[in-house]
Amino acid sequence: MIPKAPLTPITIAGWGAVSPAGWGVASLLDAVQSRAMVEPEVRQREGAARSVLVRPVPPPDAGERLRHPRLRRASPQVKFAAAACIEAMGDERSERAKAGGLRLGIVFATMCGAVQYSNRFYQEVLEEPATASPILFPETVFNATSSHLSAIFGSHAANYTLVGDSAEFLAALRIAEDWLRAGEVDGCLVVGSEELDWVSWEAMQLFDSHGVAGEGAGALYLELGESSENAIVLEAVTEPALWLNHGEKHLATQQARAQLPDKISTDAALALSTSGHVRADAAEVGAWADWSGPRVELGLLLGNCMGAGVALNAALACEYLASGMASEAIVSAAGHHHQCLAAWMRTA
Question: Which of 29, 119, 168, 268 has its CA 20 to 30 A from that of 323?
C-alpha cells in the first residue's frame, strides 16, 4: 500500500477579539492573567418581573477601524465582528483583499443574531406597521453580519452564515478548512459574534436563573501552508457529537475528546466553554476532569457570551501559543443544546 502524503497544514495566521474585557486580544489576555472578573451590570426590561446581570462590551476607543460606511447603522454584533476580523487580518492582508489580490472567504457563526435590530424593527411593526422603517429590516437577517464583512474587505469569494448553538464556531472552522483544501479561497476569516438584548438574556435566564450574560466576538484568519517558523497550526477539529438530553451530553463531550489524537501533550492549555452553571457545565467538566495541563474558563470571567464564547476561547488560545505561554492548546466546545466538538492547535 502506498502511504498517503501528509496534508498541507492549515495555519492560523491572525486572530482578534472584542469582549467585556475590552477591544483587542491583549485586553482579553490581561483579564485572564489578572483574573479580573468584569463587574456585571444590573438591567431590567420595562414590564419584566425580574432584573438580569450582564457584562457588556465597553465603548470602543476613538479610531478609524469602525468608521467604515457599512458600520454607520450596523448592529453592535456587526461592529464586534468587524473589529475582531480587522485585528485578525492586519493591515497588509486587509489591503491585499480590498485590492483583489486575496480571495477571502468568510464563515460567520452565531446563536442569536442581531437581536437588537430585530427587536427595534418588530416593535415598530407592532406599534405602527405603515411607518415601520424598511432601513432596519436588512439588519435583522442572520447573514447581515457576514455581508457587512465581505463589503468591508472587498471580498467576492465564498461567504457562509452558520446558525447553531454555542459550539458552532468550531463547525465553522471545519468549513473554512474544506474551502482552503479545495482551493476555493486563498484565506478565510472565521468569526463568532453576539450582542446583548433582553430577547437573549431573558431566554438564558429560563435555563440559568443566576447566570450572567456577555457579548463580543472572536475571529481567526486561516491560510493553507505554514506562513512562518512561528506559525500556529490548526491540527484537528473533531466531528460534531450530537446530543438531545443531559445524559447524552455527557457521552457527546467524551466522544469529542476521544476524537482528538493521543499524541497531544498533557501540558497543552485547555480552554473550556463552561460559564458557571453547574448542571449545564457538568458534562464538559467531567469529560476533562483528569486534564493536568493549564486550563482557562473565560465564561467565568466574562459571562455566557453564547455564540461568541468559543470564538473568544479560540482567539485566546492563539494568543497563548504566540506568546510562548503554551506550545499546544485544546479548545473544547460543549454546545448549549445540540453538539460538542473540540479543536487542537499548536506552534509550528
Answer: 168
